[in-house]
Design goal:
The complex is a heterodimer of chains A (about 110) and B (about 110). With about 110 residues, chain A is mainly β. In chain A, about 0% of the residues lie in helices and about 55% in strands. In chain A, strand 8 and strand 9 form a beta hairpin. Classes of the chains: A mainly beta (about 110), B mainly beta (about 110). Chains A and B meet through strand 5, strand 6 and strand 11 of A and strand 5, strand 9 and strand 10 of B.
């Protein structure tokens, strides 16, 4: 069965600390896609990244980086030198090739304290 | 570029009243469209999705319904709202044949 687990319900760190948000997924498909979305207090879900199952290269975008490891079925998200504006709920999601609907994790609330 | 609109932004309605939330997409044709609901402090629940005009799939049985009268318009409705319908309603679009969904600004609904 397909499933996305974000075990960290809430994380609180002080500004400038690095923080990693965990995402573990389950799927039987060999072709699938993984996503991260950010939901700031305003509510709108902002797309951050999509990764397909054939590309295990880590990705870096500014202070954001993503570590995809098929061996552990994980797609973790790291924010380096966190800032108050990073405070949001972050969702990890899975899409299988056979079905383009998204399977969502429960989200991790990230609080960055000044 | 593509843009997705939702209105109203916020809505306060009494129990038993009807509901109509609208979502429109600009800058793309024949998108897949989705309605999600998010209860306070919770994750996303897929309510409906549509792959074309008049084609609606329901994920959760409830007193809500959806319609797609035009290619880029998706409407969420209810004849009689329940207290449990309160939440944050998000519309999303997806280019046909691709995987990424893009979300609108959402509608906050409070049923009293």
């Amino acid at each position: 069965a397909q499933k996305v687990t974000q075990a960290q319900t809430e994380i609180s760190v002080v500004e400038k600390e690095d923080v990693t948000l965990d995402c573990v997924y389950e799927t039987r498909d060999t072709t699938y896609y993984l996503f991260w979305y950010k939901q700031p207090p305003s509510g709108e879900l902002v797309f951050l990244i999509r990764r397909n199952s054939f590309d295990e290269q880590n990705e870096i975008s500014g202070r954001y980086s993503w570590n995809f490891q098929k061996s552990t079925s994980s797609f973790n998200f790291t924010i380096t030198a966190s800032q108050v504006v990073d405070s949001a709920v972050y969702f990890c999601a899975l899409s299988e090739n056979s079905n383009y609907q998204l399977i969502w994790g429960a989200g991790t609330k990230l609080i960055i304290k000044p | 570029s593509q843009t997705i609109h939702q209105w109203p932004a916020t809505l306060v309605q009494p129990v038993g009243s009807p509901l109509s939330l609208e979502c429109t997409v600009e800058g793309t044709s024949n998108p897949n469209l989705y309605w999600y609901r998010q209860a306070a402090g919770r994750g996303l629940q897929l309510l409906f999705y549509s792959v074309g005009i008049g084609q609606i799939s329901s994920e959760v049985p409830q007193n809500l319904s959806a319609s797609r009268p035009q290619d880029r318009q998706f409407i969420l409705s209810s004849k009689k709202l329940l207290l449990s319908d309160s939440g944050f309603y998000l519309c999303a679009w997806q280019r046909t044949g691709t995987e990424t969904q893009y979300f609108g600004p959402g509608t906050r609904l409070l049923v009293l």
